[in-house]
Amino acid sequence: MRRKSTAALLVLLLLAGAVLGGCGKDAGGGKTKLTVGEVTRSIFYAPQYVALSKGFFEDEGLEVDLVSTFGGDKTMTALLSGNIDIGLVGSETSIYVAQQGAKDPVINFAQLTQTDGTFLVSREAVNGFDWNDLKGSNFLGQRKGGMPQMAGEFTLKKKGIDPKTDLKLIQNVDFANIPAAFASGTGDYVQLFEPQASIFEKEGRGHVIASFGAESGHLPYTVYMSKQSFLKKNKTAAESFVKAVHRAQIWVEQHSAEEIAKVIKPYFEDADMDIVVTVVNRYKSQGSYASDPIIDESEWNNLLDVMEAAGELKERVEHSKLVDNSFAEQVLK
């Protein structure tokens, strides 16, 4: 999220959100309809598509309408304005809203992914990679203020690299255009999400040499969140939603990358099956998919550390103020 470009919009939406408080809608047949906005369509969110494909939400009396909102700021806009009931987006967005003085804060209530989802891709093949190899290079990073870039810079600093002085950091490329920019010759290294990283590797355009998710540690990277007022009014629906998500998390843990890929493939019709399998296996093997919906305080504090290091945090926000684990805890009982 671009803090400066969205701050004024968030203020207006906070005022609107106080009036529009959403609610679960009767979908008929005794089911409650929930509109869920995902920040993007990504194999990174495999458990969500498992829950949809396997009918876990329906089993819990829910009809879930999934829409892609294409960006953290747009997801939060839709949530605050009442166009969606639940957002799937990075926890940092709820902190940005809180920093604007929200009277109806956005609450994180179920975690889906617990690591960053980007990888370090080099243009040339590298034998025996060392992070110091990045010094003096042209590094094509993610956009400033977004969680991928913050996790990327956090990792670089952990490795003794100053992103501002030790390399040329390129941040002026829009998220959607980063793969194309690298393919056209921009940067010696690039920070990429899947499936672009695996596609480049398959095509011989790049080589995956490190994982920012593995290096930056556990944090509430992608989380289901909603306005506090919505959760108070729709406790049963929220708990049913979390129960379905957790069933999917268990299913993903117990099945192979090939089995998972087959179930979620309908959500990625244009993707090659072998790429979907590769990506699922990569995320699964490094523990990116959360095994339960609990948002741990230690993970939350790691997120604050990452944001603080990036200069994107006005003040630290206590875990208890923006996280409600009560639904997850009830489900785990």
Using only CA atoms, what is the Rg?
19 Å
Strand fraction equals 15-25%
User: What do the pLDDT scores average to?
Assistant: 92
Secondary-structure element pattern, one letter each: HEEHHEHEHEEEHEHEHEHEHHHHHHH
Helix content: 40-55%
In total, the number of domains comes to 2
Shape: globular
Q: What is the number of strand segments?
A: 11
The appropriate CATH architecture of the largest domain is 3-Layer(aba) Sandwich
Structural class label: alpha/beta
Q: Helix tally? A: 16
The CATH superfamily name of the largest domain is Periplasmic binding protein-like II
Low-confidence stretches: 1-9, 14-22
What CATH first level of the largest domain would be assigned?
Alpha Beta
What's the CATH topology label of the largest domain?
Answer: D-Maltodextrin-Binding Protein, domain 2
Largest sheet: 6 strands, mixed
**N→C terminal distance:** 36 Å
